[in-house]
Amino acid sequence: MTMDKKSPIKFTLTERDESVTITQWVYETLRSAVMNGQILPGRALTIRELATLLNVSPMPVREALRQLSAENALEIQGNRRVIVPKMTAMKFNELCEARIAIESHAAARALPYIDAARLAQLHSLDRLIDQAQENDDLEQISILNQNFHRLLYTANPHQVTLPLIESLWLQLGPFMRLATSKLEEHYLVDRHNEAMIAIEKKDAFALQLAISADIREGIAFANTPELLQRFIEQSRTDAS
Amino acid sequence: MTMDKKSPIKFTLTERDESVTITQWVYETLRSAVMNGQILPGRALTIRELATLLNVSPMPVREALRQLSAENALEIQGNRRVIVPKMTAMKFNELCEARIAIESHAAARALPYIDAARLAQLHSLDRLIDQAQENDDLEQISILNQNFHRLLYTANPHQVTLPLIESLWLQLGPFMRLATSKLEEHYLVDRHNEAMIAIEKKDAFALQLAISADIREGIAFANTPELLQRFIEQSRTDAS
DNA sequence: GAGGTTATTTTGTGATCACAAAATTAAAAA
DNA sequence: TTTTTAATTTTGTGATCACAAAATAACCTC
């Protein structure tokens, strides 16, 4: 059986802002590719290949790869090869539970700092999510959902957990996106509303419950093993 | 008033293993310097200076700095300068609470996987900590204490939180070490024992309590504001 | 002296090259 | 065909150089 040597990588090449370093641009490009599952797990990423693909010199790619590895978005193998980590059912579960533990903590810590202005922003974000759901725009839903959580946690000006949370998002990346299926759209809306009601009441415990539920249902198919299994299978296939 | 332009950095230069890359060795050297507070917060780190100091070419330093920045051990300023982040009382508190939330979660998740062999290892580590405390070897205590926690969390073979936890340790680094003062040595011992008893009983809740208390007391001077303040002051002084 | 302007140095970024180790392909042997 | 071995290519690492931007020093004006 002959097959293509390497699975192709589909990048969404954005215009590069002159004020930003090439390294930064490469980093953002690779990051969103990982987050959106555009690179198959197990796929080996080589510096020169990416440099050619992105039309830059090897140096910025090298730095971006190291940073993404440090953020657990990529994995350095013993051979010094860099790959997109493969997923297992157990690891997936650990990532979800870690999200719940850390994010509900971050939410509770942010609560005292949320003022009316920020709450209004949260509401308007939630409305945008509704729209995106009507349009079935999965990628947009995913982005807006992240913005919602980020806006919540960053209310705390001394917050230190967001980088950790973003690392978990990155690791769940490709699988989180597929999760936001039409089936649970009403759940998501409900949970965000619950969260905002809890915020108005300054009820930390209710907020934690809402965030936990939102996460659990946002990646709800963790509880529908056959779906999860399908994606893990895909991830297990050799993508070198 | 004349003062030295740059505060000196005291490295503990270890022999470099040939099998390991220079970048890795530089990374480890810088990491432990940060962890042990051998670089004043606010101190600007330049590639060439470190390269000269460590007697390597700029390239490995460059990569190590980027990795440490990605791990939140260092901070990239707008000017693209890399510094050791400064500490504030609020940030310190956030870091402690984050540790408690994440580590007690990690401990609970590890509990089902802890077998007799690992428990024995934990016991022997605890004995080593006792010894180190008798010798007043603060650095050794700190290292062994970290090993104890790491050994606990890594019992879970699917664990994903250790990198996040290590990032928090790094950020607390210089301040964590100073915390392990003679005053609370009996607390530490007790908490580790409590943890091990909870493990034997497979009591997740008791384990979480023990770990939480251990962390809280290990950095107990968070509750003695005058001490904390002193170190933060030191951190605020311009160390450029 | 102090404040602002210019000159000088230092710095991060990015490009390119050399090289040993690893991966891949080709060839040979069973 | 299947397995071993050898030849070839590709890869990450590390070194060095160029350059623009930033930081620092020197200078001048008041």
TrEMBL record, chains A, B:
Q: Do the record's keywords include Membrane?
A: no
GO terms, molecular function: DNA binding; DNA-binding transcription factor activity
Which keywords belong to this entry? DNA-binding, Transcription, Transcription regulation
Question: Has keyword DNA-binding?
Answer: yes
Report the InterPro entries cross-referenced here: GntR_C, TF_FadR/GntR_C, Tscrpt_reg_HTH_GntR, WH-like_DNA-bd_sf, WH_DNA-bd_sf
Question: What residue stretches are annotated with the HTH gntR-type domain?
Answer: 20-87
Q: Mind telling me what this protein is named?
A: Transcriptional regulator, GntR family
Species in which this protein is naturally found? Neptunomonas antarctica
